Amino acid sequence: MDEEAPKRRRRGRVLRASVLAIASATLLIGGALIRRADSADLQDVARELFPAPSASFMDRLDVSVFQRGNLHTHSARTDGDSPAQVVIDWYRTHGYQFLALTDHNTYLDGARPPEVQDHDFVVIPGEEITMVAAMQPVHVNAICTKERIGGGTFRTPGAALAWATAKILAQDGVAIVNHPNFHWALDPEHIAEAKGAQLLEIWSGHPHVRSDGDEGHASAEAKWDQVLSSGRSIAAVAVDDMHALTGLNKNVPQAPPGVAWVEVFAEETSQEAICEALAAGKLYASAGPRITHLGVGDDRFTLDVETPELKVEFLDHGGQLLASEQPEAVEDSGDDEARPVYRASYRLNGTERFVRARLTAPDGKRAWTQAYWVAR
Ligand SMILES: [Zn+2]
Ligand SMILES: [Zn+2]
């Protein structure tokens, strides 16, 4: 009989117990570490220590000067209720820096508009190319063009969009694919045919264009997202499609002024600066919320706003929600006159294709930034 056997068994038991104790301790510490790693602080520290093979935005923007304008407006020259001069005067005296008057197949030359061109307000050339395709209305706004283009009848909505866009680009103009949900005329596949069109209307104050969709139809914003998700870069605009300045003529569409607009990233109120920015999609769209500073660069997307009473959603392709935030007060400059600043920001984690922001006020009114693409 081996006298050492019980000792070995005892040593075996002690060893097993120690291994178990060490394993449990490791699990406990590991668990604690994993829990700690949830904290944003630790993630930031980790990022500093081990910078990711970094994702960064392709654009770099630092914008705090905006030119407010409406890109879709009608006058009595076609189906609006007021004369062109009166319409222009309304926008000039209501906080706008520019206006494109876009009557149906009727061109307005911004260089020789009614007597309004001054240092803080400009009229830019415009026309709503008004076409019919497969019995549906297909409209494209020609902005910053040099002469009238007019409309036509086409076999398919895609063919109409392709024709109008090519005509506009041939004049170095800016093409807006208008109201995709008017008569549910345009789907993302049609919009893809508007090759080179810089802008897409995703929201309108016109009561018949159904920007928000319904049970059976996607919203114009969702259609925009589908176009973006296909890899095509096109900028979103919001417009009045104003027809009813006085509202006294009930035979015109009852779309009032001042409901939705764009804020263009341009330092000066000139036709040249505004047209250049529009062509580059340098703007944000709004039907209410205001952004006072927009910053995109490296791995950060930052928005400053005037009130914390906003929901700021950061979205990726397919409408995927990356983060939803309420803006937080940031240190003020110490200047008593300065208004408080509230900030929402998003930091790339490296998985995004693009990031865009949507702001929603308590009354449901929204604003939309463009999609900023991520490079790796
Ligand atoms: Zn239209
Ligand atoms: Zn219109």
TrEMBL record:
GO MF terms here are: 5'-3' DNA exonuclease activity; 5'-3' RNA exonuclease activity
Which stretches make up the Polymerase/histidinol phosphatase N-terminal domain? 69-133
Per UniProt, the keywords (alphabetical) are: Membrane, Transmembrane, Transmembrane helix
Q: Which domain of life is it from?
A: Bacteria
Which InterPro entries does UniProt cross-reference here?
A: PHP_domain, Pol/His_phosphatase_N, Pol/histidinol_Pase-like
Against Gene3D superfamilies, the record matches this protein to: Metal-dependent hydrolases
For this protein, the parts annotated as crossing the membrane are 14-34
- Respond yes or no to whether keyword Membrane is given for this record: yes
UniProt name for this protein: PHP domain protein
Q: Which organism is it from?
A: Chondromyces apiculatus DSM 436
